[in-house]
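Structure (tokenized):
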């Protein structure tokens, strides 16, 4: 599975929103996001520019990009966002609501938090 730069920036935009949903972006949430960039082979020199693209991206553009992904890409996004909620050891109600909203707006596959964590572990 691969993502183009716009798609990956959209994923980052949503991941940053998920990490901030409980009003605290934890270091381990930042680490998980960084590890995902590494997993997909983002060179270190491309990280800052990609984060800047994600920061500048409108939320509606991020949602549209994710909505246009294929099923496997959407499954990854759903799992990644679901897993991201768990890395700080607590799942905030605002995070669950945001995950549900993104999933609905982007037509992501439905999964539980446990299924999301298992998917990311097995990836």
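Design, position by position:
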């Amino acid at each position: 599975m691969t993502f183009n730069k716009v798609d990956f920036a959209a994923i980052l935009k949503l991941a940053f929103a998920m990490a901030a949903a409980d009003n605290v972006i934890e270091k381990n949430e930042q680490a998980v996001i960084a590890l995902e960039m590494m997993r997909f082979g983002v060179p270190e020199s491309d990280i800052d520019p990609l984060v800047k693209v994600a920061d500048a991206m409108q939320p509606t553009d991020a949602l549209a990009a994710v909505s246009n992904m294929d099923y496997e890409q959407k499954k990854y996004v759903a799992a990644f966002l679901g897993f991201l909620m768990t890395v700080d050891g607590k799942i905030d109600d605002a995070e669950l609501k945001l995950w549900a909203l993104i999933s609905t707006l982007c037509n992501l596959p439905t999964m539980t938090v446990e299924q999301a964590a298992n998917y990311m572990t097995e990836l």
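Reviewer-requested clarification: The chain has one domain: 5-122. The radius of gyration is 13 Å.
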